[in-house]
Amino acid sequence: MSIFGHFKIKVHTPNGEVESDLQLEDHGGHITGVLKTADEESPVEHGELHGHDFSFTSELHHPAPMTAEFHGHCADDHCEVISGKVHAGSFGDFDFEGHKV
What is the pLDDT of residue 65? Predict the structure, then answer.
């Protein structure tokens, strides 16, 4: 299984859905890429892939400086659909989902 490609993700917050573009590359279990929000672009760091589970962080500055910690799961071997939780610093934990574009 490999996680790579362009995903459209939605983070479900109390203030509504936040949409982002996520570009991921799999380098043999080490994930890199870029997270693009409406306000900024941030590298994917500390990315790991274990079976269908993955995790990574991304440093964001809007709406406040934070390390967004993503922990997710691929729905199938082609990783067309991803979902999980993102820890958004002092804002809390939110569900996210995404689809490969």
Answer: 92
H or E element at residue 7: strand 5-13
**Which numeric CATH code is attached to 5-100?**
2.40.128.120
H or E segment to which residue 4 belongs: none
In terms of phi and psi (left: phi > 0; alpha: psi -120 to 50; beta: otherwise), the region of 6 is beta
DSSP per-residue letters across 34-84 = EEE-SS-EEEEEEEEEETTEEEEEEEE-SSS-EEEEEEEEESSTT--EEEE
3-state secondary structure of 92: coil
Amino acid 74: pLDDT: 95
DSSP symbols for 8-44 = EEEEEETTEEEEEEEEEEESSSEEEEEEE-SS-EEEE
CA 63 to chain centre: 17
Region 70-91 average pLDDT: 94
Closest CA to 66 of 31, 92, 96: 92
Which pLDDT belongs to residue 27? 86
